[in-house]
Input
Amino acid sequence: MMIRVVYKNGIHDTVVPEYLNFLLESDRIKMFRRSTGWVHVGVDPIRTQKSPSYGGSERRTASSSPSDIFTVSH
Output
């Protein structure tokens, strides 16, 4: 499946989905076409493959094992 895109310089093109992700991450396109209509980058919500960086403290430890966590006392 090819996806229609419009680059920031106004050129129209069709690309494979994997390349669309690259174009979105490198901020090279103005809009792309979904089955529901045109998506305007920076205006409409889109999913990205980047996960937000976690700024909190690390709560997992390498020394924890299931036996440390789940102890049964009678």
